[in-house]
Structures are given as C-alpha cells and as structure tokens.
Amino acid sequence: MLSACATTERLPANFEQPEPLPRGLVEQFCYQRMPIVDEIVHVRDANSYRVFEVSMQAGLPGDDDDTPITFEFYEQVADGSAPVVLLLPILNGQKHLMRPFATYFAMHGYAVVIVDTVQRKTLLEDMIDPEPAIRRTIQRHRRVIDWIESRPDLDHSRIGVFGASLGGFNALFLAAFDDRVGAVVPALAGGELAEVLVASEERRIREAVEGVKLELDLDDAQLLGYLREKIKTDTLVVAEHVHADRALMVMAEHDDAVPYERQVALRRAMGEPEAIMLPTGHVGAAAYLLYLRSKALEFFDRKFAEPAGHGTATMQASLCDVKTDKVAGDPLLDRAQKRVHNVLSGTASYFDSFFGSTGIAEGSNVTRGSLSVGGQYDQREHFQYRVRLRARIALPAAQQRARLVLGRGDTNELIDGTANENVDTLPSRFNEFEDDDWLIGVGLSRNPKIARGWYFSFGVKVSTPLEPYARATYRWNRTYGDAWLWQVRPRVFVQSQRGAGASLTNKLDFAASKHWLLRSWSVLQSDQDTEGVGWTQQFTAYNSITNRVAMSYSLFAAGETDADVPVQDYGFEVGFRRRISRDWLFMHLNTFVSWPREELAEVRERNLGVGIEFEMQFGDWPGRPQQR
After folding, report:
1. Which of 301, 465, 525, 618 could in theory staple to 341 by disulfide, Cβ–Cβ 3.0 to 4.6 A?
2. 94 forms bridges with which residues in the sheet?
3. For residues 22-37, b (16+ Cβ closer than 10 Å) or e, as one string?
4. How many CB atoms lie within 10 A of CB 79?
5. Residue 379, Cβ neighbours under 10 Å: how many?
6. Where is mean pLDDT largest: 173-177, 303-307, 445-449, 475-479?
7. Which helix or strand (DSSP H or E) is residue 163 part of?
8. What is the pLDDT of residue 415?
9. Weakest mean pLDDT among 9-18, 98-107, 230-239, 386-395
10. What pLDDT is stored for residue 401 in this prediction?
C-alpha cells in the first residue's frame, strides 16, 4: 500500500496563535465588491451532483484585466446548504488532475469549484514583474468566493481550499487574505518564493528563469536579489499570519520543482501545521492521489465540525470596510442602509436583483427587502407619490420553514398576488400609489428550496378596521435547457373586507444572451370586487448595459372580462435604472404612454407620464455577498 510509505506530522500542542496581517498589507487587497454577473452552462449530471461551466466578470474596480473568471462547479442535488471546496490547479492549469478530487468531494456531500488557471502574460513577463500577477490572482480567487457567498445553496461558513504546486501557493495566499476560508490544504508549496523560482528544476520555470537572466543580464545570485526586491507578497511573509490549526500541508521529500527545504521553511513559518510527508518527487506525488483526497476530505470534515471561532486568515476584515467607505463615498449612507437591515432582521438572478424583484412572500428563507421613495406624474392622475417597504425576515428558529413578511404600500396586491415584482411604475390599474396601509404576516413552507410545493401565509392588514388575511400558494418552477425558466403561482386567499378570491401568476423568462432577458408576466384574478376575471399581461425586455446601468422596455394591457370596458388600459413603458454610489442603491426613471378607459362614458385618450423612484435594498440578495 502506497499510503503505508507516507508519514504524518501533527500540529504541536503548544502552537501559538498568529498575529494579524499588518494593516498596510491588508489594505493592498481591499476592493469594493461588485454585483456578480455570470453565465452558467449545464454540462452533465451524476447521481448526487450536477456539473456546470461558469464564466463570471471579474468586476475588480481599477483593474484593466477584463478576462472572465472561469471555473467548473459541482452542485449538490440534495436540498440544503452544502459546504464548498475550491480546487486550484497546477501551473499548466490542467483541470483534469483536479477532477478526481472534485468528484470524490462531490460524492461526499461537498459542492466543488475548480478554478481555471488564467495566465495573462507569459511566465517570463510575470517573472520580470511578479507582484501584479500575484495580487491579481489573489483578487480573482476572492471574487470566486464572492460568487459562492451569493448562492443560498452554498454554505459560505464552511469553505475549504485545496491546491497543488502553483495551486498550493495560491491556496496559501487565499487562505491568508480572505477570512471566509475555513480550512486550507496547500500541497507542494514552499517559501520564500524567490528561492523556489531560482532553485526550481521544473521545465517551464527553468526556461523562464534562464530567459529573465538573459534579458536582464543577471546570474543566479543577482536574480535572487532582484526577485526578493520585486516580490512584496511572499509566501513566508503571509504564512506566519495563517492559523496553523486550520491548515494541512502536503510535502514531497524528493521534490526538485519546489525544493523540500523550501517546503520545510514554509511549514516552520506557518507554526508547524499538520503535514503529510510523501517519499516522492514533485510529479511522483500524483501516485498518492487516492490517499491524498481521502486525507483532505477527512481534514475538511474534521475542521468544519469543530467550533473553532476563526478561519485560516488573521486579517481584520473591518480594515477593508473602512477602505471601501473612503473610496465609495459618504459612510453615512452605508450606516443608514445597514440600520434598516438590522432593525428588521436583527439578515435569483442578476436581472431580478438589478430590477428589484424581491420575491418578498416566497422563495428561500433569507432576509431581504427594499425601501423605496418615488413619485410619478401623468395627465390622468396628475402627481402621486409613494413610500414603499417590502421585506421578509428569516425566522431561523422555525427550521428554515417560516419567515416574517412586512410591507407598506399596495398591501391588497401583496395579499392577492397581483403585485408586479418589479419597481417599474406601471399604470395605476395594477400599481397603485395612494395605498399607504401596512401589512404584517407570517409565511410557512414545507421546504423553501424545492422547485414545487405549497407556501402558506397569514397576517393582518393594519388599517381601520384591521383586516386579517390568509393565503395559500402553490409554487411550480421548471427550466428548459440553459435559457428558459417557467414559473407558475396559483393562489387562494381570504381577506376579511374582500372575502375569498383566487389568482394565477404566470412568468416565463428567456435569457437571450448575457445582456438581454425577455419576460412574459401575466396575472388572472377573481374576487368579489372584480367584474368577472381581472387580467394583466406584460411583456418586458431587460437590457443590462453595464454592471451599473440597465434599461427595460415593456408592453402592457389590463382589464376585467365582465366589465363594461373589458380592456381598461394598455400602453408602453421605457425604464432606465442605475446604481448610484452603492451596489444596493438604485435610481429608476421611467416614461410611459397609456390609453386608459374604465367606464363606457369615458373617451379613451392618450395618457403620458413620467416617474422617478429611489430604492435602497437590504439583506441577502442574489449576486451580492450576504450581510451579517
């Protein structure tokens, strides 16, 4: 048995907790998190997991590298939030060497991400100026964790990182600079980096070293001094600030690509973490693949079961918060947004997040909401204003099955399900401004993550007199290929002043490209206040122009089948939506033309209108890091 030839070293019982990373070093890696913009393509299915190819925009302000970040994603089929392992490949970026680890972890309940190694320049160019390449790689890997944090099906409190060779160096850097990493397994990594490069016998590195020496007219000793001066972010520098009790090193005793003495130096700098010693060279370590993946899984399971209270990094996350505030603007704005979120909670797609579709009453059990202030003027109704609050607050004590629902605005439409999910100020037939009542209720679902099932809610409309209500909704979702999503929501409801009623919402989305989403949204409604069946139909094209700017174009019509005038309104609307100052603060401008007519005595005339609305989102939104 090969495993019998490998030995293990334990973490010393008297190991010391490391000091935090210096402020100056931490601030070099702070960045303002941008919304996640990604493309996800289904590749194949296995018994317990699905595999996707993901491409996401880097979204790093100030970086001129617009190369997408690409990775394979192994998604768990089972319900619940899965722990995650990031796999960082070797120098050549050969993902196939990481796939045996990925499938093994996925079969044992982990979601897995294999990040592609993207080299912007040649290895020779990066070696001449290594620091930018090191920093860019760290930031891009941190953006992958941003992506993980944006998904409710992934447990971002249990993130592990495994990397071998170049991936081992990158795993160590990520573990040092991101406090969301809970455990790390760097394999075949060493320090200092300058000595590793100069002494390495790996062919590509050797060729690059000789090329740099020739171009700069340096010998080995001079090149070593040159690299020490150029490399500010070094493995030995950061290693002493990594929690040794959250790391497992893999070392090869006969390695000439990453000399063994350099691996020993790195382990010593880290405080002697657990280690696996292989009696092989660099390439020969692959013979221990089955053994290593088993030991790595055992390590992640053990560490994620421990109440450690910390991850791998010692960095003070608040330092980055301060830096972001200075860059982005007045921190008072941030405090106001966080205060709204904290008061309510104590805590699915890019387009829905951008255009304000909160899914207030249904969906996964997270806290999310929006506060908006707006007004519109049109020739028929003249000026109207609105203050609207919509929020759902997770109730974790109810085993992820219950949430508090809070709203101010058109509460009747929240109850009967006819409310348009978007902030677009569509005609008052189905988007009233003057209703200022409050609604508070509780929603219950058997399993908020399933693609279909019942959702129940009950509560009270705070008016004079109070109006209790109860509602049952059946959720049905289905995807077709990679571009179509169909959602159907039949509902029945009872409200004290309105009696019993029913509604049916049908939404069909088509992702035409990464910049265009086409949506058909329709509602049928019947209650004692409606003549026959009330209906609304809207066709909208959403265009994401940049990460901060988007447009929408809508055709709409509404009416009641048994009314004297069956078609009571129709028209066209154009909306402009822009993030302002923060990724959770929006300005929405719209203009529309409609032709309303509700009574036979009326003459259908053109009605022009304009509107403006400011919206502040809070809580856990798709494509955005969760708030704590």
Report:
1. 618
2. none
3. eeebbeebbbbbbbbb
4. 12
5. 13
6. 173-177
7. strand 154-164
8. 57
9. 386-395
10. 56
Q: What is the mean pLDDT of the chain?
A: 82
Taking residues 38-67, report their average pLDDT. 87
Question: For residues 9, 12, 13 and 15, what is the CA-based torsion angle, rounded to 10 degrees?
Answer: -150
Q: How far apart are CA 293 and CA 231, in angstroms?
A: 32
Lowest mean pLDDT among 229-243, 253-267, 414-428, 545-559: 414-428
- What is the three-class DSSP state of 29? coil
Work out the number of other CB atoms within 10 angstroms of the CB of residue 326. 9
The number of beta carbons lying within 10 Å of the beta carbon of residue 533 is 16
Q: Which residues of 215-234 are buried (b: 16+ CB within 10 A; e: fewer)?
A: eeebeeeebbebbeeebebb
Task: Report how far residue 218's alpha carbon sits from residue 67's, in angstroms, rounded to the nearest whole number.
Answer: 33
Cβ neighbours for 461, distance < 8 A, ≥ 6 positions apart: 411, 412, 415, 437, 438, 439, 467, 468, 469, 495
Calculate the CA dihedral of residues 489, 494, 498, 501 and round it to 10 degrees.
Answer: 40
Give the number of residues written for the chain.
628
CB 386 within 8 A of CB 433: yes
Q: Is 219 helix (H, G, I), strand (E, B) or coil?
A: coil
Q: What percent of the chain has pLDDT over 90?
A: 51
Q: What is the token pair recorded at 8? A: 């293990």
- Residue 335, pLDDT above cutoff 90: no
**Alpha carbon distance 258, 189 (integer Å):** 7
Cα–Cα distance measured from residue 567 to residue 570, given in angstroms and rounded to the nearest whole number: 8
2.30.42.10, 3.40.50.1820, 2.60.40.730, 3.40.50.10800: which CATH number matches 2-9+19-303? 3.40.50.1820
Check residue 523 and report its DSSP letter: E
Identify the H or E element spanning 193.
helix 193-199
Q: Where are the domains of the chain?
A: 2-9+19-303, 333-619
- What are the tens digits of pLDDT across the range 278-299? 999 999 999 999 999 999 999 9
Q: Are 435 and 412 a contacting pair, CB within 8 Å?
A: yes
For residue 191, give the nearest of 134, 125, 109 by alpha carbon.
134
Residue in the block written with tokens 């099932």 = 453
Q: In the predicted model, is pLDDT for residue 54 greater than 60?
A: yes
Q: What is the pLDDT of residues 180-205, one digit of tens each?
A: 999 999 999 999 999 999 999 999 99
Whole-number Cα distances in Å, 85 to 71, 158, 190, 305, 576? 13, 8, 22, 15, 39
- Assign domain 333-619 to its CATH architecture: Beta Barrel (2.40)
Residue 516: both structure tokens together: 């265009």
How is residue 242 annotated by DSSP?
B
Nearest of 611, 573, 555, 551 to residue 354 by alpha carbon? 551
Query: What pLDDT does 76 receive?
Result: 96
Element (H, E) at 11: none
Residue 3's pLDDT band, with cuts at 50, 70 and 90, is low
Mapping DSSP to helix (H, G, I), strand (E, B) and coil, where does residue 327 land?
helix
Torsion of CA 472, 475, 476, 477, to 10 degrees: 160
579-607 as b/e: b if 16+ CB within 10 A: beebbbbbebebbbebbbbeeeeeeeeeb
486-523 pLDDT tens trace? 889 999 988 877 788 899 999 998 888 878 889 999 99
Distance CA 145, CA 181 (A): 9
Rounded to an integer, the average pLDDT of 587-593 is: 94
Question: In whole angstroms, what is the distance from residue 557 CA to residue 155 CA?
Answer: 42
